[in-house]
Write a structure and sequence with these properties.
The chain is α/β, with parallel strands linked by helices. The chain contains 19 helices and eleven strands. The protein is 46% helix and 14% strand. Strands 1, 2, 3, 4, 5, 6, 7, 8 and 11 form a nine-stranded mixed sheet that branches. It is globular.
């Protein structure tokens, strides 16, 4: 069972490698860059010119300050960000920790701006597809109780989403939809770590109504799979099954998908068929994820590749089916254009989305210099951790010396003096669900990883609700 707990931690939380944490020593003031062997500038003008050539000074020329990280109030300071978004259909908003207040509130603030000013109409999160359906029903029609939904859906290793900041975001979405019932903001769960009972019920209901000849076969293929417990218990029990049984279950759910594909919907039935097929696909995504042999280390990277691929596929499906422009929330390491940790994650969600959508996908990384966050300790218990200022040589050490305390910068339009720095590898804080995590101090090239960065000077731990 300990192995299964480790797998739950790896699978059911938004993944992100834990990177090196900077020491808590006070940061030194920025200094002018002087090439090796060169003489120091002789006077104020030369010193100013040398400082202007530093990456932090160059980035400061194109960085735009954020008035606040809180979601309320005016949004005029986000207009430069809106220009960076341009015509993108999916905007990936990252996070360097899974549970810091400011990362959640910045996402809320950006969502508000993109909904009100750029026509975005969906918010997606690393949560099961079935969780997404349940929250979407609440946001659209007020079905259920928000506290109960969050308590039941965001538990176990999804607990990081059960926080006051996301509760406020959902309340804002619901209030917006009450005022705009014909043009609502939707919620999407894109992950494959669990497939709730509602998915089986929706597929069965569609078959009973539109394809009654398929209903008995689908019932047989799904035999023993529909959850009757909470997600954490269900997945733990599922992973206790022998690998041969898990492979057989994945084969069965794959046949269910094929069965629905063989009889496509037409006319008025086309939309209902497309949704039923997607629900069946979400079931198959979960069983396929758990059909990998987790006792074989060589299988781990294949499983992670599958997970990031299906998250991208679910986002692309929603965007293409509904036409919604989507704000996608996940860890930096999932939304990056290139993987942070190639050994564990050969290709990540952001890379798949760029491949599918081209410039229609925008990757926005969120970084921070110092502060606190919630994470699981080595014993599995949730606790608050604090890290000090970024160490010299790290990406955040330079970013925190840009002239604004909190700012947004378009890396695609960086001045020449910053391009070499952005193209070089630098260590970043990238703290996952467990601290310390699975991969320490990888180095990334920011220019290859993200289109835009939002850098925050300080973050504080999010307020967990349960």
């Amino acid at each position: 069972m300990n192995m299964h707990k480790a797998l739950l931690t790896a699978l059911l939380v938004p993944l992100g490698a834990t990177l090196a944490v900077a020491p808590t020593a006070s940061a030194a003031p920025p200094a002018a860059s002087v090439s090796a062997g060169a003489a120091a500038p002789a006077g104020p003008e030369e010193a100013a010119a040398a400082a202007f050539r530093s990456p932090e000074a160059a980035l400061g020329r194109v960085a735009h300050p954020l008035r606040t990280t809180e979601p309320r109030g005016g949004l005029a300071d986000l207009r430069p960000f809106g220009r960076m978004v341009g015509d993108a259909q999916v905007v990936g908003l990252g996070e360097a920790t899974h549970s810091s207040h400011e990362f959640f509130t910045v996402k809320h603030r950006v969502l508000r701006y993109l909904v009100e000013e750029k026509g975005f109409r969906a918010f997606a999160l690393e949560a099961p597809w079935s969780t997404g359906l349940r929250l979407d029903a609440y946001l659209l029609r007020g079905e259920g109780d928000l506290k109960q939904i969050m308590d039941e859906e965001f538990r176990g290793d999804y607990r990081w989403w059960n926080n006051a900041e996301y509760r406020d975001l959902f309340r804002w979405m619901r209030a917006y939809n009450v005022k705009h019932p014909k043009d609502p903001v939707r919620f999407v769960g894109d992950d494959g770590g669990f497939a709730g009972a509602e998915l089986y019920d929706k597929v069965s209901a569609y078959a009973a109504k539109a394809r009654p000849e398929l209903a008995p076969r689908l019932t047989e293929l799904y035999r023993g799979l529909r959850p009757a417990t909470d997600a954490e218990t269900y997945v733990s029990d599922y992973l206790s099954k022998p690998i041969a049984e898990r492979k057989e279950l994945a084969e069965r759910t794959g046949r269910a998908v094929d069965l629905l594909k063989q009889r496509p919907g037409t006319g008025a039935d086309a939309d209902a068929h497309a949704w039923a097929l997607q629900h069946a696909t979400a079931i198959h995504q979960m069983t396929t994820l758990y059909a990998f042999d987790w006792d074989d280390p060589k299988n781990i990277s294949d499983a992670m590749l599958h997970r990031d691929r299906i998250m991208a596929e679910n986002i692309a499906w929603w965007q293409q089916r509904t036409g919604d422009k989507i704000v996608l929330a996940a860890h930096n390491s999932h939304l990056a254009l290139k993987t942070y940790v190639p050994g564990h994650y050969p290709k990540v969600q952001g890379g798949f989305l760029r491949e599918r959508l081209g410039a229609g996908y925008l990757s926005v990384g969120l970084t921070f210099d110092r502060g606190s966050f919630n994470a699981s300790g080595q014993d599995g218990g949730a606790r608050r951790f604090t890290v000090g200022p970024a160490a010299p040589g790290t990406a955040e050490h330079t970013l925190d010396r840009v002239r604004h305390r909190d700012c947004v910068v378009d890396l695609r339009n960086a001045p020449a003096a910053a391009r070499a720095w952005l193209a070089a590898p630098h260590t970043v804080k990238n703290i996952g669900a467990t601290y310390p995590g699975i991969a320490d101090a990888p180095q990334i090239r920011l220019a290859d990883s993200h289109d835009v960065l939002i850098h925050l000077h300080r973050v504080e731990a999010a307020r967990m609700l349960k």
